[in-house]
Amino acid sequence: MKVQKAHSKRVIETACTRYVIQVSASDTEGVISLSMFKCVRKEMKLHYHQKLTETFTVLRGSFMFNVNGEDCELGANDTLIVRPCETHGFRALAPQSTLLISFSNGPNRDDFFTELADRVNKGKQ
């Protein structure tokens, strides 16, 4: 059994986002990773994943999602599953909105978010 204590969790931040890695993909050999996500950005960045399945659960506040061109508003305790190759994006609708994001069957997402935060924090997008 492996227990992740709060003080050992990895935090990745930019001016408008905060990720807390709860379970790293490196701990599960890529089977799953689990992160808490806070977002204050106003725009929605559409993207897709070739192999990942992404599961979003709203813990607090509300988010607007777009999946394959269809808008969907989610509130506390709502869950959305996005399968590989589905174009999607999301944005917070309320301050302090928080998501629990799970990535299944993917590479190490921790490194992706670290590199992304480094680029954003240095002014490169």
Question: What does this protein look like?
Answer:
The strands form 2 sheets. Strands 1-2-3-9-4-7 form a 6-stranded antiparallel β-sheet, with helices on one face. The chain contains 1 helix and 9 strands; from the N terminus they run βββββββββα. The protein has one helix at 109-121; strands at 10-13, 17-23, 32-39, 53-60, 62-67, 70-75, 79-82, 88-92, 98-104. It has one domain: Jelly Rolls (Sandwich). A hairpin with a 3-residue loop joins strand 1 (10-13) and strand 2 (17-23). The mean pLDDT is 80. By secondary structure, it is mainly beta. It is globular.
What is the strand and helix layout of this fold?
Elements: E1 10-13, E2 17-23, E3 32-39, E4 53-60, E5 62-67, E6 70-75, E7 79-82, E8 88-92, E9 98-104, H1 109-121
Antiparallel strand pairs: 1-2, 2-3, 3-9, 4-7, 4-9, 5-6, 5-8
List keywords for this structure.
125 residues, mainly beta, Jelly Rolls, 6-stranded antiparallel sheet, 9 strands, globular
